[in-house]
Amino acid sequence: MHLKTIKNLLVTGVGIGSLLLAGCNQQRQFEAEAQSPTVQTQSPAPATEPTQPQERSPDVPYVPTPQEVVNQMLQLANVTSNDVLYDLGSGDGRIPITAVQNFDASRAYGVEINPELVQRARQNAETANVSDRVQIVQQDLFQTDLSEATVVTLYLLPDINIKLRPKLLQELKPGTRIVSHDFDMGEWQPDNVVQVQGPSRQHTLYVWTVPENVPANLQ
Ligand SMILES: C[S@@+](CC[C@H](N)C(=O)[O-])C[C@H]1O[C@@H](n2cnc3c(N)ncnc32)[C@H](O)[C@@H]1O
Question: Measuring CA to CA, which of 2, 92, 181, 218 is 20 to 30 A from 163?
Answer without folding.
Answer: 92
